[in-house]
Specification:
72% helix; transmembrane; mainly alpha; Choline_transptr-like; Choline transporter-like protein; 3 strands; membrane; transmembrane transporter activity
Amino acid sequence: MGAAEPVVERESERREEEGKEEEGNERKEEGGDVEKGEVLGVQEKVIDSSNFDVNNNLNNQFGGSHAAMMQRLNPTTPLRIVIGGSSRMPTPSPSQTALPRSAPIPQPSQTTLNSRRYTNKISLFLFVVHMVAAVGLVSFLIFKGIQGLIEASESVKRKERRIVKFYLPQVETASLLSITLAFIWQKAVRQWPRTMVPFILWSSFFSSLSAGILLICFQRASTDGVGICLIAFAIGNGLYACWVTQRIGFCTEILIKSLEPVPKFGDLNQPTYWMLGVGFLWMSLWILAVIGAMNFYFTPLVIIVLVLSLAWTAEVMRNIVNLTVSRVIALYYLRGMQSIPQNCFQRAFTQNLGSACLGSLFVPTIEALRIVARGLNLLEGEDEFMFSCAHCCLNVMQSIFRYGNGWAFVQIATYGKGFVQASQDTWQLFVRQGMESIVDSDITSSICFLTGVCSGSICVIVVAAWTARVHQTFTATLSLLSFFIGYLMTRIAMAVPHACVSCYYVCYAENPSNILFDKTIQDHQSMMADRGVAAATPRVPRRFSA
């Protein structure tokens, strides 16, 4: 019996080892089920290892398979089961445990579309000071005019009554007529762009020529001077229309494409209505101030100051509309957003007003000087002095143009940049895409300008014919005022198509692969490149030719 006991113990130990191996195999099979998320029929159940204690009697009663499967749980991950002292998943590194799983991954910073800062605050301050001074001057001159009608001598009263009688009706008529023409031009350009582009080029020529001839027919020195200026402009306008004939097709295609998003925004024209209404009221008060200035000291100087003030104010109004439309259309191109024009108008009237003031002051001046420099560049020839001056002026204006151009209003409205920074960034986009020659040859701004000229010429014809019958002495002065008013009002309304075209160019330069853009610009770039290669022969002065 004593000799048989070691054998029995060895057999019992062997059976226990076999039982452990079978239990290990069962644990491996059931561990695979645990990895599939099925632990005792309950998914994602967190079990605390400190509350889990297995009695040896359960191993005997249930075969020890289920109880031995989960002896302890890894505290770092609730669903990680540790079997037999070894985890089936690797232990997380200290860097992983230090960063919570809910921590967001840092993203690279992007240019915000909702900048709340005010741009170009110095320009905004100067414009506010200018408006306060302008309101004060206009109020004072209106007071002086009313005082002249009531308290002055009989001779002064007669002069005041004559001015009011023969000035005010014609100028108010010119204002209403210009507003009507502004909406007609804008509606026609939006409805029939293919027809209106050449029509505007030649109608401005004929209207300005007709107005000049009409004024010369009055045979007065003042009207002859104004008429000659209009005829000279008409000649230049006709030459320009002949020169840009080859650009009309591409300009029309871009205009058609850029106006496609406009019907998606039903109230996009609402800022234009507001600006034209405010402009009409301000011009009515401005005319009364001009009448009052005629009985005040330094009359020519005061009228020049009033004209410059009105020009800056009207240009700011136009660029407010430009910024509003630019933000609506640019967000549609870049982000696919349908913004509310009223909110964009509020932003343009507050946060971006400083940039509108600065751009209104410098863009017309820079563009005018650039046109003069181009004209001088056309005069280059055998005269070395003219050759050097022309190229020097053109290079200077090209450098200045990079720091201040009308294309900047798109990025001002979209990203809230300052005027100079937006001008530089926009031009860099054009350079990067090789679009400098395309945007430089665009005639949309010229079309909008000639639309204002056409409206001004029509106002001159109506007002001059009316004034010549009632009081011919005032014909020249009223002709100039009516032309000025008609031009400014029409330019405010034409800011809508101009802004749409600017957004098309700038947004294309920023993202040419956008599905909203076709291959119009790309095909035109290829055509211009082929034409440039074909015409790459350098210019040789005649005295060096064979």
